[in-house]
Amino acid sequence: MKPFRSLIPRAEAMNIISSSITPIERVESILLEDSYGRIIAEDVIATFHVPPFDRSAMDGYAVKAQDTYGASNFSPKKLKFVGVKHAGECFEGEVGPGECVQVATGSPMPRGADAVIMVEDTKKVDDYVEAYHPVYPGANVSFKGEDIKKGDIAVRSGEHLSPGKIGAIVALGISSVKVYAKPIVSIISTGSEVKSLGSKLKPGEVYDINSYTLTAIVSANGCIPKNEGIIPDDPEALREALRRAVQNDVIVISGGSSVGTRDLLYDLVEEMGEVKFHGVHVKPGKPTLFGVINEKPVFCMPGNPTSCLSNAYIFLIPALRKIARLPEAEPRTVKAKIGARIVASSGREQFLTVKIENGIAYPVFKKSGTITSMTNAEGYMILPINIDTIEEGEDVEITLLE
Q: For residue 320, what pLDDT is reported?
């Protein structure tokens, strides 16, 4: 049996993880229609102006601005109506003094016009248009290159492709982009007592909860989960599973990291790579192990479902987001009053799951192995190592899970 290495604080564990991982470099080309949420891997440089011509920004009439000076509700300016120009159409003539052309939003500006008066500020009377409001040169006009100039970087490498950025790329006529590949995360469940869904359980056996919760965590944080199955407590089977798994970008293993005769992962990670730490001053999640094999990070989570999921929130999510080049997740916190007296675990930072009702946070944590400690939780609070008790009614800060 391998005892825990000296337990380290959570902050130190997170620093070790962060310094041991690097953002993914692999790049792939995808259609723009599939690019939402991806991280672009190239600068998108405009090869032409957007808009490519001066165009109307409003429905109305293209005019010479000076022809509207002095217009009011009591003294409208009368302009001769000389044509209609729909979006996508070109007016062949030229707007002369005292004339106007009807335009739609997006219509190219007719030659001779330097402003657009909005349709609601006009009234059409026979072959004339009465303008009730003056406009200045450039009013309600989007000028060539006003949005994006030729040669501008419209979207920078490393940016998250939002709907707005996708729209800018479409405006440049680009149909495919290079993006960073989504990291592939191998998920391994260990333990001879762990069985897949559909199996009939015998006494002492349990279903494989962790691979499903970890799959959800991985998918929600910019990565692709790859379930490697359930591996029994056998050194050769685990060694072979690790050999397969390190072909991918990240390895996440549940079970097998606590002290015990069947817990073999410490030895295997040490044999194939390097154990960076084993044991953290947190509850739940004390037996967490982190190592590196072939420059691939290996997370060995506790087998208990609550401990595994709690540690995924604490340690795994920040790492996945860094590897996937996603921005750090901004924790959402709320203030509440604790609904019961809490006695903390001595010597360990404690993550306590809670449910919030009417501004009161009620603890729902039961034991490390109870999955309902997470299913009933809306958030968690952190009890520092130096806190022994929290009295009912004290103010606390809750980090929301969703």
A: 98
Report if residue 1 sits inside a domain. no
What are 379's two structure tokens? 């958030």
Beta bridge partners, 225, equal: 185
d(CA 222, CA 330): 15
Question: pLDDT value at position 2?
Answer: 47
350 with 303, same domain: the answer is: no
Q: For residue 14, give both structure tokens.
A: 């997170």
CA distance 360 to 364: 12
Task: Give the range of the structural domain holding residue 169, as residue numbers without chain letter.
Answer: 27-48+160-180
Same domain, 33 and 17: no
Same domain, 292 and 281: yes
Give how many domains the chain has, as a whole number.
Answer: 4
The answer to whether position 174 is within a domain reads yes
Question: Are both 41 and 78 inside the same structural domain?
Answer: no
Check residue 66 and report its DSSP letter.
Answer: G
- Decide: 323 and 22 in contact? Cβ < 8 Å: yes
For the chain, the average pLDDT equals 91
Evaluate whether 117 touches 68 at the Cβ level (below 8 Å).
Answer: yes
Give the pLDDT band of residue 85 (cuts 50, 70, 90): confident
Q: Which long-range contacts (CB under 8 A, 24 or more apart) does 100-103 make?
A: 100/61, 100/62, 100/63, 100/67, 100/129, 100/131, 101/61, 101/62, 102/60, 102/61, 102/62, 103/56, 103/59, 103/60, 103/61, 103/62
* Number of residues written out for the chain: 402
